[in-house]
Write a structure and sequence with these properties.
3 strands, alpha+beta, about 10% strand, about 130 residues, single chain, 3-stranded mixed β-sheet
């Protein structure tokens, strides 16, 4: 996270991101959202991390990635390369971060950016 200008004080663990956002007047309809990047007043950002990410929520995100992967290439399921919790959490973080980038307009582009970053950082080296 330090590579993306997030300091330890910018990382906030919450019981429910949707509830935290509602209390702060920030719209968040996804009750199972595992991570959320929030712009701080002034400059910078913070990342909210749900304290407990259910297996159901994780499976739903991996299934969505699998479906988006098939839109590009039916022979490749990118979600299968996320074979550890560390890789899954890194992917979720990087996708969430990608949404703040000006050249990332949709989830497919966020996926591409996240996987490129994961490759660059050595997540897929044997």
């Amino acid at each position: 996270m330090e590579q993306y200008c997030l300091l330890p004080e910018d990382i906030v663990f919450v019981e429910s991101i949707a509830d935290w956002c509602r209390e702060q007047g920030i719209p968040e309809p996804d009750k199972e959202k595992p991570l959320k990047l929030i712009a701080k007043q002034g400059s910078g950002c913070m990342i909210l991390i749900q304290e407990f990410i259910s297996d159901t929520a994780m499976k739903a995100r991996m299934n969505a990635l699998s479906i988006r992967s098939q839109l590009i290439n039916v022979a490749v399921d990118r979600s299968s390369s996320l074979d550890s919790n560390k890789k899954k959490l890194a992917y979720l973080f990087l996708c969430e971060y990608a949404t703040s980038l000006p050249n990332v307009q949709d989830e497919l582009q966020a996926d591409d950016w996240a996987f490129t970053e994961m490759e660059r950082q050595g997540f897929f080296k044997q």
